[in-house]
What does this fold into?
Amino acid sequence: MIMKCVAIIPAAGIGTRFGGTMPKQFSEYESIPILIHTLKLFERINEVSSVIIAITPSWEEYTNEMIVFHGLKKVYKIIAGGKERQDSVSNALDTLEPNEYDIVIIHDAVRPFVSPELVRKIILTANEFGAVIPALKPKETIKQIDENGMVQKTLDRSVLCVVQTPQGFKTEIIISAYKKAIKENYHATDDAALAEYAGYPVKVIDGEETNIKITTQFDIQF
Ligand code: C5P
It folds into this structure.
């Protein structure tokens, strides 16, 4: 069976940790906005048939211009983002027709260095397990602290992982997970957390050291 996969790219953040005058996904690296680097990557991955971007409406015109200028063919919807990342993804999911796609992958606009191999592996594993995330083992010791900056306890890092995107899901799983989260006002910082909350098992595969999330000026220089 041939799977149909759509990629949702939340790109509606305002990037306050980054500084500067524009959201971090529009900062340039090698004279190309980071968002465009990310979109170009998906153009090269045959397993992804279409891309939906969630954007702040005031950036839509510029984004469209960039898409035309760089000859990107897969972006078929640009939709308005929401207050939090979760709201942006939810708006994108709301635009899907029933049975339009078998697999949905969700990838941060600000992770332009993910490899096509990892994206393909996420799609295949999502088809097998229903929900999948890439993650790395933490290299540093992680401690739980309180609001006064005092250590409460040292966590066992052998059972912890640092989670990345793309995260992949069978379409019906991520749609039902988002529906439940909205109904019950549940908020989380990644998509898999909503699937977990809805009771779905989530498979973890190896992430990539190079798949960094550009958050600060240091990241882009790095
Ligand atoms: O803010 P954070 O680094 O977690 O953002 C991760 C991704 O989610 C970024 O690509 C950002 O543009 C996007 N985002 C969004 N809508 C928001 C907040 C963040 O699409 N309201």
The chain has a mean pLDDT of 95. The first helix runs from residue 34 to 43. The two ends are 41 Å apart (CA to CA).
